[in-house]
Amino acid sequence: MQLSFSTYYTLICAALVLLAGKFLVQRIRFLRDFNIPEPVAGGLVAAALIFAVHEFTGYSITFSSGLQTGFMLLFFSSIGLSANFSKLREGGSALVLFLFIISIFIVVQNAVGIGLAAALGLDPLIGLIAGSITLVGGHGTAGAWAGVFEKEHGIQGALTLGIACATFGLVIGGLIGGPLAKGLVTRHRLRGHGDASVQSAPDEANFENPQKIRLITTNAAIETLALFAACLGFAEFMTGFAQGTAFELPTFVWALGGGVILRNTLDYVFKFQVFDRAIDLFGNVSLSIYLAIALLSLKLWELSGLAAPLMVILLAQTLTMGLYAAFVTFRVMGRNYDAAVLAAGHCGFGMGATPTAIANMQAITTQYGPSHKSFLIVPMVGAFFIDIVNAGMIQLFIKLLP
């Protein structure tokens, strides 16, 4: 039996999840101490309740996927709209270095997945599905590759398997990033750039301080909504136009790319001042609602039904992610506070998705202070460059496997 929630009721449930998460983080010291993002805290409780309903009544509750997709595209559009070329230049060599670190991690993640799958008697391609396809790539990449594995490689149930792995990664990525970064900050006695309670200067880094009061006008809000609409329209057009070509990319990548093009065209061609505070506000709201709906949509009974070998692979991937972030990402990026925040972000999109990475970093910077460098680097690498690198890596591994 299935109980479906319409768009309106899905939005109501998402709002309740966010309010519950805020209440839990405020009241439970463990959640605050380990910097668990509010959407993750509330979302996991909601997912557990939905799981209990399914187990005791047989009802499967589903929520509006269109709403989740819409807020995801809004979030990625906000990243593009906030990325003017001056900010990209500010990221500089650190952005390139971080991208290199993540690219090496994709190789490590796929090697772990394929190696363990072979050792456990599974098809090595299943290890690839439990690697960068679903963990770095997330639900979108899992869905995109599922048909290829089912039709061309005979992996039956690849879509269900991919969605389950991506769901596992989304949850774990939101759980390990905050505690890992907190441990690095405490162990190395790192200090943030200023007091977390002090409001940073406006428009320095998007998403950096979600609790910050942003003064926007009605006209600014309308102009910003028009920019978002243009990004979504561009993304929809390019997704259809590039389908089946060498330029075929996920819709969210086109939304981000459209934002980058639109923002810099307005900045440098038309000299139009984009209202960053409004973009920041809409982006943070979209991020929170997206995560809430994503966690509401978890089907924990699918995770509980995973075969033991697959769980071994996913747990090994979790350990690999934590060790790599602590001993490679943190150290190579400078062993300082910014590096600790970047490690939290890496856990977010290395196991889950860029929105999870942003939520992880927000949880750290809210407590310890801002990290402008991290919020310049992670959104662009995690949401744009890494998807291009990952697509190439996946194709390479498929060709190398027998």
TrEMBL record:
Q: Which domain of life is it from?
A: Bacteria
Q: Which UniProt key words apply to this protein?
A: Amino-acid transport, Cell inner membrane, Cell membrane, Ion transport, Membrane, Sodium, Sodium transport, Symport, Transmembrane, Transmembrane helix, Transport
Looking at the UniProt entry, the stretches that span the membrane are 6-24, 36-53, 59-83, 95-119, 125-146, 158-181, 251-269, 281-301, 307-327, 339-364, 376-398
UniProt keyword Transmembrane, yes or no: yes
Please give, as recorded in its UniProt entry, the membrane topology of this protein: Multi-pass membrane protein
Q: Give the signal peptide range.
A: none
Where does the protein end up?
Cell inner membrane
Query: Which PANTHER family does the entry link to?
Result: SLR0625 PROTEIN, SODIUM_GLUTAMATE SYMPORTER
Annotated family: Belongs to the glutamate:Na(+) symporter (ESS) (TC 2.A.27) family.
Purpose of the protein: Catalyzes the sodium-dependent transport of glutamate.
The protein's name in its UniProt record: Sodium/glutamate symporter
Q: Which organism is it from?
A: Comamonas endophytica
